Amino acid sequence: MFGVDVNAAVDQVSPEQLKALQQEINSLQGWLKTAEGQRSEHQEILAEAERDIGILLKQIQDHQDQQNQLNGQLDELQSRQTLLQRQRDQQALLLRRQIRAAYAMGRQEYLKVLLNQEAPDQLARVLRYYDYLNRERATRIESYLASARELRQVESEIIEKSQHLNAVTQSLRDQSAQLAQEQEKRQQALAALEQNIQNKGSELDKLLSDQVRLEKLLAAVEQAAQKIQPQPDNRPFRKMRGQLPWPLDTDQGVKVLQAFGSEQYNGKLRSRGLLLEANLGQAVRAVHSGRVVFSDWLRGFGLMVILDHGTGYMSLYGHNQTLLRDTGAWVHAGEVIATAGHTGGQKRTALYFEIRYKGRPTDPVSWVAKR
Questions:
Q1: Which residue has the higher pLDDT, 337 or 106?
Q2: In the chain, what's the furthest Cα-to-Cα distance?
Q3: In order of start, what are the domains of the chain with their CATH numbers?
Q4: Which residues pair with 284 in a beta bridge?
Q5: Which of 366, 362, 244 is nearest to 313 (CA)?
Q6: What share of the chain is helix, strand, coil (3-state, %, to 5)?
Q7: What are phi and psi of 263, to 5 degrees?
Q8: In this predicted model, what pLDDT tens digit does every residue of 257-267 receive, in sequence order?
Q9: Whole-number mean pLDDT of the chain?
Q10: Taken in order 356, 362, 368, 371, is the CA torsion positive or negative?
Q11: Strands, E, within the chain: which ranges?
Q12: Nearest to 135 by CA among 108, 102, 86
């Protein structure tokens, strides 16, 4: 969402620069609100559903991580519980044996030796032996009590973790049910939008309108981004041509579904970026360090992240499933900033990827490393 985290700014940014940036962002918010008001009812429903789905998926992932962590902690506690139970039982057994042995010896033998004044050496040995037995018994009793105390503490922690796990599991069920409702809402909105498109001409008008909307957004974002100097980087963006990583992991290679400059509708529309094949939920990574200047939904592009890399360079990542970094955040090269999806009304999962210099699109293929 729009909103600048003042605490995230670097130390060298002055209060005047931050105030100016905030004014630009407020202006940008007003523009986006006006633009959103021009959307049709079905587009509004689609935007709301895709935003909610992105938030829910992030919450579900967080709860799944908590669930996995709690299960691991419970496994460790239950293993500790088993060990302590065995230790306590062994200590109890040894203690019972010692008590029985002491009882079997009885106090008569002790008194007999104590009263025998003709065997002082034997008396000293017996006294030391009985002292040893008493101290050993006291030690065993203390060890037994300590194990019992720790066991009770572990059992209490198991109850607490189990209750927390149950609460997290219930939250997951609730969020999954809500997610299903939002996904159904999205499908209905998409079906209604497709029904409204009577012919290719109206679809072209929509795509042209979306492109104009993006251009206006980028102009406003670029103006706002100029108020904050980028963090210093060892390798400026302009020197990274042919060396940038792909925004998607390339273990299996990256498939370009739509190339830069490719023509549509008899040359009336040209692609200003790349459309890359992706798996639903696949990590989307920043190709270079920079500042998040936009993290929100935009018609035609869905949930989108825009990074400002300084000196006029920006990179765009569209059609995401979830957004993982907020506006104002600094990110490093390779950092996961989103997960791939099909928001913005797309039927297939793909990542829209652009690189711009001073507002003009440039072919991303010339910037990324060869596959």
A1: 337
A2: 124
A3: 68-186 (1.10.287), 200-371 (2.70.70.10)
A4: 338
A5: 362
A6: 55, 15, 25
A7: -90, 145
A8: 888 888 765 55
A9: 73
A10: positive
A11: 256-258, 263-264, 269-270, 274-277, 283-285, 290-298, 302-310, 313-323, 330-331, 336-340, 350-357, 360-362
A12: 102
Name the nearest CA neighbour of 320 among 54, 38, 3, 17: 54
The residue behind tokens 């909105």 is: 189
Q: Give residue 113's pLDDT.
A: 54
pLDDT at 133 over 80: no
Which contiguous run of DSSP H or E holds residue 84? helix 41-115
DSSP of 165-181, one letter per residue?
HHHHHHHHHHHHHHHHH
Confidence of residue 2 (pLDDT cuts 50, 70, 90): very low
- Token digits of residue 291: 């500042």
Mutual angle of helices 15-37 and 200-225, in 10-degree steps: 170
Q: Please identify which residue in the block is written with the tokens 């709860």.
A: 63
Question: Cα–Cα distances in Å, from 303 out to 186, 246, 290?
Answer: 14, 19, 19
C-alpha span between 148 and 323 (Å, rounded): 49
**Residues 356 and 311: beta-carbon distance below 8 Å:** no
In this model, does residue 338 exceed pLDDT 80?
yes
Indicate left, alpha or beta for 320 from its phi (over 0: left) and psi (-120 to 50: alpha). beta
- Residue 129 CB: number of other CB atoms within 10 A? 13
pTM passes above 0.70? no
Tally the residues of the chain.
371
Kindly tell me if the per-residue pLDDT of 319 is higher than 90: yes
Q: What is the DSSP letter of 119?
A: -
- Round to whole Å and give the CA distance between 271 and 235: 29
